[in-house]
Amino acid sequence: MASTSGGASGKPQRIPKVAKVKNKMPAPVQITAEQLLREAKERELEVLPPPPKQKISDEDELKEYQLRKRKEFEDNIRKNRGLIGNWLKYAQWEESQKELDRARSVYERAIDVEHRNITLWLKYSEMEMKNRQVNHARNVFDRAITILPRANQLWLKYVYMEEMLVNIAGCRQVFERWMEWEPEEQYWHQYVNFELRFKEIDRARTIYERFVMVHPTVQNWIKYARFEERHTFTASARKVFERAVEFFGEDHMDEKLYVAFAKFEEHQKEHDRVRVIYKYALDRIPKQEAQDLFKSYTIHEKKYGDRAGIENVIVSKRKFQYEEEVKANPNNYDAWFDYLRLLESDGTVDQVHEVYERAIANVPPTPEKRFWRRYIYLWINYALYEELEAKDMERTRMVYKACLEVIPHKKFTFAKIWLLCAQFEVRQKNLAGARRVLGNAIGRCPKDKLFKGYIELELQLREFDRCRILYEKFLEFGPENCTSWIKFAELETILGDAERARAIYELAISQPKLDMPEMLWKSYIDFEIEQEEPQRVRELYGRLLERTQHVKVWISYAKFELSVAGEDMAARARKIFEQGNRALRSCEEKEERLMLLEAWRDIEEEAGSAESLDKVNKLMPKRVKKRRKVQTEDGMDAGWEEYYDYIFPEDEANQPNLKLLAMAKRWKEQKEKVEDDDEEEEGSTSSDEDDDDDEKRSGGEGGAGMLAMAKQWKKQRNTDEIDISGSEEEDGSEGGEEESRKKTKQLRKQKDPDKDSSSKEETRERKKEGRAEREDSSDSSSSSSSEDEDRQKKGKRRKRESSSSSSSSSSSEEEDETVRDKERRKRIEGGEDEDADTDISDEDD
């Protein structure tokens, strides 16, 4: 079908255009945005020369200049006709040339383009006013406000011009025309203020009448009334307020209107009218919307009313609030507290009794003490009110009795209630009743607070025998309470019975379980110090140290010895510190031992000698940094953490891993020294060679030992703690070997120094000859290569032997080392290169 239709129409088919592929390769010169901005900024900073000043000397030049400028302005307008700025510049230039007709023509043309532009109308009118063309300006304003009646700026400029020209009638006429459009509130106030400036109060009142009808808000009615009040029209102001109340009615009542009305009457000293207004408003406005109204009413009553009226207003409102709260939640004890506090201050006794009875009737639903804590204070406040305010002692006693009956003492009790009841009986001079109450409390539900309160009461009454009996009962009830033991002993101390106090302390420290034993021992020691019994104090410290090795005990003991007068007090304190240092060696907490040594050092600095201070300083530990594995709560590894540890001098020998790095370093130095010795002793006698063999053998033994220690250190790295301090320690055995080698060398040099020097020269000559022979002959090179292969095989064999089990015998290692040394000497005698020997030694290492 498509081909048939195409043939019938006779139109040739179009070949689709092939899309051209654009070159999307980046340009050879790239320009960044930063470069563009920088160039633009640089061009801005370029200082352009100012245009040359043109001086017009005759009329032809002026006309030429005006023609050129007009052409420029017309071109700009032709380019962008809707841009008002070009029109304004053109008109202002014509105005500057005193061509007002031309300027008006420009403005008129601009108005034809954009007649709703307020700025254009304002500039047009300002030009006419500046050139004192008042009628032209009026015509412009009339046209503007006719076209744009909602443009308030035009109206304001118009009325301002008329007022400046003192055309009062014309200005009023403009205002009237403006008010017909019912503008915003502030422009009505402008009209009112205009009339007031010319003392036209009746006209202003008329404007207000129209204003409150156009904008019928409470605030505008209040402004109208204040206007009347300000001009001493009291009756008119009251009438305005009454009209406002009628206007809004009961459906749209606003507290602001009634507050303003009441304040107006208050200024007129009409307090009865004020109360009527407030009551009328409070009866009809909802409580939640009358907060300011109620506040103003309260302030007025405080100023001009009696107390009864004020309290009635406040109490009635708050009573209603609290009643609503307690009805919603009877167990809201905080609301009950506030309600009762209000009634106690302003209510009658019967009302307070009634509310208290209602409150205490709301017993907590569950017998858990945390729910009873707030509830029990209702009973306490009830009893205190009856005692202090109502002065009814029998009712107070009944309240306490009823409260004690309500509390489930088998599950929990409140010691405060028992003590308050007993104190009440004491105030009533009923000591037997008070003792009966406290005895009943201790018998039914003994508590520490009850015992302490009872004992304090008997102490105030100076009944010390009763106090002893109570302390005995107290200690039978709670023998682990150290505070009660201390107080009992202090009582006996005050009474002058030191033996009884000492016996109490002995009983106390013999208890199997104590809550604060350190406090008890300290009190016992202080007691003996006060009794000036140093020997007993020493015995107490000894007994205490048998139970605990705490560092503070040792420090306190030493300071006590230092405080006891005597010639050997420093020696005694030093002895205590030494004993403490020995005892704390097995302690895991190294910080405690450090604290002891620091305290010892401080005392030596104050009372010791330089020798004793140096002795303490030698005992001070080293602070090293270590790391250990960190594990999470699930037991997973969380990496490593660094920490500081303290290593004491006597502990370093027990930790060989601390010496590992230092020993490895010395082993390396020792190996280098041995190689140097080999070079020096190559030309020595056969007896010297035997000695060198022995030394090399010992060096080989040291190397095997270092390999074993390296394996041990590698295993140590996988443990939980690795020392990374890098401390260096001296090893006695290695130091001895090194000293013996040095002595041997010195003896050899003393025996035959000439032979030693000559042997060195011969060795150097043999090396030079060996190098020359290797360069000239290929036979020597082939032999050296075969020897290198042998050396490599032997080195591999030695590596396999060193990596085998650690149970290999030391004798085989000595034999290998001896063979290796002999081969090295043969190579040196045969003229081999020194570098080859160095390579072999390194490979062996």
From TrEMBL:
<feature type="compositionally biased region" description="Acidic residues">
    <location>
        <begin position="831"/>
        <end position="845"/>
    </location>
</feature>
<keyword id="KW-0539">Nucleus</keyword>
<feature type="domain" description="Pre-mRNA-splicing factor Syf1/CRNKL1-like C-terminal HAT-repeats">
    <location>
        <begin position="87"/>
        <end position="363"/>
    </location>
</feature>
<dbReference type="GO" id="GO:0071014">
    <property type="term" value="C:post-mRNA release spliceosomal complex"/>
</dbReference>
<feature type="compositionally biased region" description="Basic and acidic residues">
    <location>
        <begin position="749"/>
        <end position="777"/>
    </location>
</feature>
<dbReference type="Pfam" id="PF23241">
    <property type="entry name" value="HAT_PRP39_C"/>
</dbReference>
<dbReference type="GO" id="GO:0071007">
    <property type="term" value="C:U2-type catalytic step 2 spliceosome"/>
</dbReference>
<feature type="compositionally biased region" description="Acidic residues">
    <location>
        <begin position="675"/>
        <end position="694"/>
    </location>
</feature>
<keyword id="KW-0508">mRNA splicing</keyword>
<feature type="compositionally biased region" description="Acidic residues">
    <location>
        <begin position="721"/>
        <end position="737"/>
    </location>
</feature>
<keyword id="KW-0597">Phosphoprotein</keyword>
<dbReference type="InterPro" id="IPR003107">
    <property type="entry name" value="HAT"/>
</dbReference>
<feature type="region of interest" description="Disordered">
    <location>
        <begin position="671"/>
        <end position="845"/>
    </location>
</feature>
<dbReference type="GO" id="GO:0000245">
    <property type="term" value="P:spliceosomal complex assembly"/>
</dbReference>
<comment type="similarity">
    <text>Belongs to the crooked-neck family.</text>
</comment>
<keyword id="KW-0747">Spliceosome</keyword>
<keyword id="KW-0677">Repeat</keyword>
<dbReference type="GO" id="GO:0000974">
    <property type="term" value="C:Prp19 complex"/>
</dbReference>
<protein>
    <recommendedName>
        <fullName>Crooked neck-like protein 1</fullName>
    </recommendedName>
</protein>
<feature type="region of interest" description="Disordered">
    <location>
        <begin position="1"/>
        <end position="26"/>
    </location>
</feature>
<dbReference type="InterPro" id="IPR045075">
    <property type="entry name" value="Syf1-like"/>
</dbReference>
<comment type="function">
    <text>Involved in pre-mRNA splicing process. As a component of the minor spliceosome, involved in the splicing of U12-type introns in pre-mRNAs.</text>
</comment>
<feature type="compositionally biased region" description="Basic and acidic residues">
    <location>
        <begin position="819"/>
        <end position="830"/>
    </location>
</feature>
<dbReference type="InterPro" id="IPR011990">
    <property type="entry name" value="TPR-like_helical_dom_sf"/>
</dbReference>
<keyword id="KW-0507">mRNA processing</keyword>
<dbReference type="GO" id="GO:0016607">
    <property type="term" value="C:nuclear speck"/>
</dbReference>
<dbReference type="Pfam" id="PF23231">
    <property type="entry name" value="HAT_Syf1_CNRKL1_C"/>
</dbReference>
<dbReference type="GO" id="GO:0071011">
    <property type="term" value="C:precatalytic spliceosome"/>
</dbReference>
<dbReference type="InterPro" id="IPR055430">
    <property type="entry name" value="HAT_Syf1_CNRKL1_C"/>
</dbReference>
<dbReference type="InterPro" id="IPR059164">
    <property type="entry name" value="HAT_PRP39_C"/>
</dbReference>
